[in-house]
Amino acid sequence: MTAPTPPTPPFRDPQLPFAKRIDDLLSRLTLEEKTGFLHQFAPAVERLGVAAFRTGQEALHGVAWMGPATVFPQAVGLGATWNPELVRRVGEAVSREVRAMRGRDERVGLNVWAPVVNLLRHPLWGRNEEGYSEDPGLTSAIATAFTRGLRGDHPTYWRTAPVLKHWLAHNNETDRSTTSSSVRPRVLHEYDLRAFRETVEAGAVAGVMPAYNLVNGRPNHVSPYLREHLRSWTGEDLLVCSDAGAPSNLVDSEHYFDTHEEATAASLRAGVDSFTDHGTDSSRIVARVRGALERGLLTEADIDTAVRRQLSVRFRLGEFDGHIDDGEFDTPGHRALAREAAEQAIVLLKNDGVLPLAPDARVAVVGLLADECKLDWYSGTLIHRSTPLDGLYERFGAERVEFAEGVDRVLLKTGEGTFLHVPPADDADSGVRGAEGALDPALLAGRTDLPPLTTDATGTELALVDWGEGVLTLRAPDGRYLSVAEDGYVRASADQPGGWIVQETFRLEPHGNGHLLRHIGTGRHVRVAADGVKVADADPEVFDLVVVERGEEAVTRAAARADVVVVVAGNDPHLNGRETEDRTTLRLPEHQERLLRAARAANRSTVLTLVSSYPYAVDPAALPAVLWTAHGGQAAGTALARVLAGDVSPAGRLPQTWYADDTDLPDLLDYDVIGGRQTYLYFEGTPLFPFGHGLSYASFSYRDLTARVEGGTVRVSFTVTNTGDRTADEVAQLYTRAVDPSVPHPRRELAAHRRITLAPGERAELSFELPPSVFEFWDVAQGRWRLDPGRYDLLAGASSEDVRLRTTVTLDGEPGAPRPVAERGLEAADFDEQSGTQIVDRTKVSGDAVTPLAGQTGELVFRACDFGPGVAQVTAEVAGEGVVELALDGGPALVTLSPDAPTAGPYDYTSLSAAFAAEGVHDVHLRLRGPLRLAHVGFSG
């Protein structure tokens, strides 16, 4: 007799709603199994037929870290396209390649950690390349498009599950796991939260990743904002994945908790659902969770909540229904899309008529990036590769293009009179050479079987590049970079600088009549030993730097023979500005400045092409043309050549302000965009190039701006006409400005934009609907959004500063009212203005307080405070020690409050009271001194 077939468990029944199926599966899991799910690498549950699962697959501009894949332009380049529909198609292509690669390699995950929606507030941020824009509206538009592409268009199942990075107010790599971003409520709501909120509300986001930093004194991994804001924006279960190592940072570097059990419990209760820590080893996280359970810091219900969110994502991905999307990989369509994206990302900053290039022009292409197709930390491995030189050869013919890289060629002479020598790789490169005998660079990095450097009487001429701030790379004649492997020997064993800790960079340090050569990755100096050149702690070699040829000499020769010179300058994304390392200046490295000056001196028709992850401060006055593009992926060179030749009219637009000088920048850790007058929204200086700027080979006219208010919505329309002689794209931009605001508003703010293609003479009427929320601001006095009644300018044009049309509408809003301080008092963080203070955590769980910066007297200003018919007493909630002074309307201190003794700890508050008489409406000034936290000030009759 045949045994009856066991019934299908409800979690396997595709006819049931996901919520019921998740409930069923959750009920079948043991506490031990559920605890195992909390680590990034969740194990299989074989008894239930549940497969192993891991969170996290990097896919910022293509599938990363998993081998060959289509490489699209960097995220900041996608932002420069100002084209959400294009970016949606890029996201779709990336998701299809994720699925295709998953079919071949189970290590490829479907929970993708992309996009990055941190705002590009500060151009010296090392990870500038990863964000889309300094504007929250543009960032959310591009991010929403990318997540929609990643999610796919199936009504039930998601192709991939996108996780947004990095929550929240994260714009510095310097001390990133210990610094706190002081974010006042207006900046929090109007700026930092906005990009996340609008993207989550669009419905294609599976979760977020908290950032390493703290916000207002509290680590992001225990942020109450996850509950108070993020999860209120959607009815979907959102998966919160920790950043790598961040759970341990809560104790090890931040010292926010005393034990890892406390930290893990606090993170889980705050909303972290998956812990990315200790690589594939889940044992320590599991042990911490068990310890927290034993100590009563967690309940099984807390674990169930996190596991439920994980399972929600897995069900949406179709895991339990056998839903398989085979995807597509490296298709002709993906290759064409990579080129289209690279073309649309190119921004023409200046053009005095030298571009487009004449068809018969003799072109010199020079510079350190002229024959490079650089990747970054979040790139995949190139299948196809196009450098500017490749593109110009292809477009103009090799006979019309001359190349000069511009590297300095040097010999390093030892104290013994010998020279550093790079042995040939032929004797040790079995399997390294490809079919045509060329070195396969993918097999070079980290090799220890290649021979180390030696010395001999003639030496090897090395290409030396100074990438700025003394960071050097040295390259052998066959293209191999000098590198240091784990055994400490110096070898020519890398195709490019790269890795989490770059092993291909050095510094020359003056020493006596020569130089020491320090290897930056290990911090050790280079030593010449009997068994080869190595790095060591003692007996460093003193080298004489013998310059065989300066790079500018080769550039001068090539430039003098050409009709036009294209100087390709910029950065290597692994050096001087990347994850873990902020830049220190906007200036172009001196080596590249030398090459640019040499080219310009030899040929006035010099075009500067900046290929970089971030803005530079360059003087364009003496240059007839300047372009910028982010590192453009596999088709970068072809795209650039097509734009230079005029096959494509450039229409990229700057997604962030390009400042003229370092002195225009705020402190890297000043997150108060309002008080610090930061980004195009508030900056009052003259930028080098403004937000939204970008030129074309065509010309466009703007006419017929109309605006009408209907039920609170502002309906705007205007026409754009191509008045040029070629088909081209234009990016029409619409900005708003409050004419007479009650509190500081942006100078102007992007409300809408559209990228359109117009043939010569073609005209398009553009229409936009602006809901009331576009004009609202966060009213700190009332703790909510409010629309100021009054007049608002509508500005239409080609950039934030190139305004072609304007009109004004009058909106009915809600008039502001004085703060009812006699009833509510004042929350310290709800100030209107401040100086010398920072916001800190009121408790480890929730709330804000304010403290003066070390050694400074801080001041908080609260405008228009209504004391009603009168108050007789003031009470301040404080912790620590110090002094609070209260004054009215900027006058002398009327009350001084100070605890008799320091409180027991920074979270132990005491109430200080004193007599204080006031009536009517006044500005309140609170001055703070000493290590004191002020949480609240109350008034009573």
UniProtKB/TrEMBL annotation:
Signal among keywords: yes
Domain of life, source organism: Bacteria
Presence of the UniProt keyword Hydrolase in the record: yes
Span of domain Cellulose binding type IV: 819-941
Domain Fibronectin type III-like: 730-800
Membrane-traversing stretches: none
Keyword annotations from UniProtKB, A to Z: Hydrolase, Signal
Stored PANTHER family: BETA-D-XYLOSIDASE 5-RELATED, SUGAR HYDROLASE-RELATED
Family: Belongs to the glycosyl hydrolase 3 family.
Listed name of the protein: Glycoside hydrolase family 3 C-terminal domain-containing protein
